[in-house]
Amino acid sequence: MSKQIYITWIDFQRRAESMNQYVDFDLYYLPPPVSRKWLKPFGYLLQAWRTIRIVLAEKPDVVWVQSPPSLVPHILLGLRAFTRRYGLIVDCHNASMLPPWVHFPAATWVLNHSDRVLVHNEEMRGVVEAHGVRPELVRVLEDPPAMLDLPPAAPRAPDARPYVLVPCSFNPDEHLPLPAVMGAARLLPEVDFKITGRKWKAEAQGLTKDAPPNVHFTDYLTIGQFEALLAGANVVLGVTSRTNCQLSVANEALGAHSPLVLSDTGILRKMFGDAALFGENTPEALAAALGEALAHQPEMRAKSEALKLRRQESWLAEARRASQIGNGPASGGTPGAGTLVKPPAGR
């Protein structure tokens, strides 16, 4: 069995965690050691050194690496030229094809000298290939359904108000629809809305100033705190303004068997149409979809669970195809990306 590692320069990501429940790699988080933007280049030097040390110590057969930052594949490709050869799989998130990372020097050249380039949906495949990446290197690997070991939902009083969980990082694609979420909350005053993410970002964007009284900003949550909220949510709402975004929250909701409402995009309908309800990013459309989800919670929970099981099977087949790298242009001679394990039953 080949030894695999996955390196990402952030502190946590659900996609990587979920993939690690299906794919046998050791996951390394290397978050930025500094927060101030002007210090980031110095932080990158430390992250690069840690990356090199991990690879030299682990001697992997295959390295999976997340991009962006786009310089991480550069480091690993350069290191491979001076050490034992290993397969290199670059997991390209959508932001890798947006400024500033898409303009990073030699970004396309490095992808073309990797062994596999993963994108998250068919639309992004077209974007990556349009930037000059060789089509034979590109594979679509969507986020797998999260396998969550959720705590039991805390007992709630019979008269407790229902709540909608809105996982949020306040990135630009989420910032644009959030006023519509606020408007939907005003149309559903009997329902609480819990918006996760760092509160100072919400304040900086002016979202807390005129928020209705049934909207609550949770501030930063630990993984355990977030999963406790997820376990008790009546509905999970995921919003985006990007047509090519697949929303990690949707797979978290499937993992929790939660009723799910999403922004109405083609990608999200294709991936989650069997379980979710959809609304345009307007107060009226989101409120209508949320109201229907709240009224049909048992049926929607059953649909989420059924779609999770189907997506697990299809994702495993997709991952087996995507991870075969033996014939890549710069392959280290590894016949494949390792052992894919069957997910356990249950959550």
Automatic annotation (TrEMBL):
InterPro entries the UniProt entry points to:
Glyco_trans_4-like_N, YkvP/CgeB_Glyco_trans-like
* Positions of the Spore protein YkvP/CgeB glycosyl transferase-like domain: 184-320
What residue ranges carry the coiled-coil annotation? Answer: none
Residue intervals of the Glycosyltransferase subfamily 4-like N-terminal domain: 27-141
Q: Which Pfam families match?
A: Glyco_trans_1_2, Glyco_trans_4_4
Question: Which key words are in the record?
Answer: Transferase
Gene3D superfamilies the record matches: Glycogen Phosphorylase B
Ranges where the record places region Disordered: 322-347
The highest taxon in the source lineage is Bacteria
One GO MF term attached to the UniProt entry: glycosyltransferase activity
- Return the protein name: Glycosyltransferase family 4 protein
Organism, as annotated:
Amaricoccus solimangrovi
